[in-house]
Amino acid sequence: MVDVVLYGNLTKDIIFNGFEQTTSIGSIGNVWDALVKLNQKLSIHIEPTTIGTALIYVDTDNNTRVSKPNLYLKTNQPKVVEAKWSHILYLNHIKDLEFVKTIQNSIVSADVAGKGKFDLDILTYIDYLFISDEDIIDLDTLLDKVKGCVILHSNSGSTIYKKDGTTIVTNHKTIYGVNVLGAGDYFASAFINFMLQTNDIEVSIKIAHNETISFLKDKI
Questions:
Q1: Is 105 helix (H, G, I), strand (E, B) or coil?
Q2: Strand, helix or coil at 11?
Q3: Are β-strands 157-162 and 149-154 bridged in parallel, bridged antiparallel, or unpaired?
Q4: Cα Rg, the chain, nearest whole Å
């Protein structure tokens, strides 16, 4: 059994920050990189569902980024791997989610990226669903469907919404003038890492937000 298995999109990112161009491995690559930096003792397995590319523009002045993805250059039906934690990127960009139903004896988290519909019934298999303030999805509908919690993260704070109506909130001063690319992936990675260590949701969300703020500051 591995500690973490990553399913979903693996992309070659062509990134413009102003007129400066760089190339990187995104999506699963971002989460893998963050997990390795946070905890080198973790055993991680990568199981892509698609391989593609994305053109990304980062607007540092406004803390935003936009992308034009082409995710389906190659597709794959992933092999389900036994793991303590299974994380899926991104539910609304995976055409066949049937494999999620076969994941057993594992905590399952997932996220979405921008717009794109998916079968919301798959959320009954998801313990932790990550969304950002840029993802326009009805929160009440998500809470009605999700097995566990919905975690909303932004550059000003993070909130865990539980099915019983209670919330856990962490607020910090907003950082301006940063490159937010990869921030959501880093936040999810930090949360996963510290949940595996502490199994304390309140501690983990606070540490994950602080770690992500530090990550963004390092990119200034």
A1: coil
A2: strand
A3: antiparallel
A4: 16
Q: Report angle CA 70, 74, 75 to the nearest 5 degrees.
A: 105
Which residues, 6 or more positions from 132, have their beta carbon under 8 angstroms from its beta carbon? 152, 153, 154, 184
Identify the three-state secondary structure at position 114: coil
Q: Structure pTM?
A: 0.91
Residue 174 per-residue DSSP state: P
Decide if 55 contacts 14 (C-beta within 8 A).
yes
- Cα–Cα distances in Å, from 177 out to 34, 161, 173? 22, 28, 13
Rounded Cα gap, residues 79 and 103, in angstroms: 10
Within 10 Å of residue 146's Cβ, how many Cβ atoms?
22
DSSP SS3 for 91:
helix
Distances in Å between the alpha carbon of 41 and those of 3, 30, 36, 82, 193? 9, 18, 8, 18, 10
Residue 100 token pair: 């999620």
- C-alpha distances in Å from residue 33, one per residue of 13, 24, 70: 14, 11, 22
pLDDT one-digit tens code per residue, 5-46: 999 999 999 999 889 999 999 999 999 999 999 999 999 999
